[in-house]
Design a protein that fits this description.
2 helices, eight-stranded antiparallel β-barrel, 8 strands
Length: about 240
């Protein structure tokens, strides 16, 4: 699971770097546009309880985002997302998981800043493209409602599609993968002690060197609040 997620993250990071080199500000009209909108989707967890199933046990996720479009290629997004994650060993055929039989539910409040790169130039005032795929990467911090580690930094990497509905409105579809630096989001202790542990008394329950992943899949509706040109018309 960890190798698969690392390969996915590396591929998205590669796209970000390639777009960053290609999408020079001179390739599209420079302007400054601000957007604000709600987010609605689902969240899921990957870790010891869920070793490799994408979109497993989707729980609600909702929030809001503020975006600054620097030009038709690049943007900075600030977002806040409230999400639930859950999982059960009993959903998997692995013999040890069936014996461990761990189940959990947790709530996270996530704050993130992501830098976005569009594949095609997008301008709220109109242009040749009404939509574009995009990639984004950044830094986040999740506050866990339960567990020994309340503050959990993460590295979000996202792949999405932007659709320009009108000069004022746009719509995003996005898959966001968050690599956390915590192994406690699933509330799984490292080891069980005492006769009450039953068949796994004294056995290792989690593997600390691996950390949990939290991902979201959802949609965002954006309202353009203000737009300011920053170009020289004679030059462009």
């Amino acid at each position: 699971m960890q190798n698969h997620m690392r390969k996915t993250t590396a591929a998205l990071l590669g796209l970000c770097l390639a777009l960053g080199a290609f999408a020079s500000p001179a390739l599209g009209q420079r302007f400054r546009a601000y957007e604000l909108g709600p987010y609605l989707g689902g969240a899921y967890y990957m870790g010891e309880v869920n070793p490799g199933k994408q979109f497993y046990s989707m729980d609600p996720a909702f929030g809001a985002a503020f975006r600054v479009n620097f030009n038709s290629w690049r943007a900075l997004r600030l977002e806040i997302t409230q999400m639930s994650i859950s999982g059960s060993d009993l959903d998997f055929d692995n013999e040890y998981q069936q014996t461990r039989a761990h189940q959990f539910e947790n709530e996270l409040l996530d704050f993130a800043a992501l830098y976005e790169f569009n594949f095609f130039p997008l301008n709220p005032k109109g242009g040749d493209f009404w939509g574009s795929p995009y990639v984004a990467l950044g830094f986040g911090l999740s506050v866990a409602y339960d567990g020994p580690q309340k503050l959990n930094p993460n590295l979000p990497v996202a792949l999405g599609m932007k659709l320009r509905l009108s000069p004022r409105w746009s719509f995003d579809l996005e898959w966001n993968l968050k690599k956390t630096f915590s192994d406690h989001l699933d509330l799984l202790e490292e080891q069980d002690f005492g006769p009450e542990a039953g068949a796994i008394w004294g056995k290792q329950k989690s593997y600390a060197p691996t950390t949990d992943w939290v991902s979201t899949l959802g949609a965002r509706l954006n309202l353009t609040l203000y737009q300011r040109k920053s170009t020289c018309p004679a030059y462009f």
